[in-house]
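Dear colleagues,

I hope this message finds you well. In preparation for our joint manuscript, I am sending the EGF-like domain-containing protein (Paralvinella palmiformis) sequence together with its predicted structure, so that both groups work from identical material. I would be grateful if you could confirm receipt.
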Amino acid sequence: MPKTTCDLIDCNNGSLDIGECKCFCLEPYHGKNCQYLKNETATGVNIIISGNMSKWPTIKKAIEKIIIKELVRSCNAGGNTCCPKA
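The corresponding structure tokens are as follows:
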């Protein structure tokens, strides 16, 4: 039997509804593939980097600088909501 797009979905911490081709996460997980713990993301930021990571060692510093710059910009704009007691 040929594989469908639904067959390729990995619901890490949940179950796959074949009819809707969607993951339904078990508590306390969430995310498209139930890959995040709610308590880990409630007050933080998730940054997902995917793709060919063979060049990661050479681009890591540049990516970190961009992420830090954007987080600082976002926190400055959000004030206490974003970065309480920062």
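For the figure legend, we might mention the following. The first helix runs from residue 38 to 41. The two ends are 55 Å apart (CA to CA).

With kind regards,
E.M.
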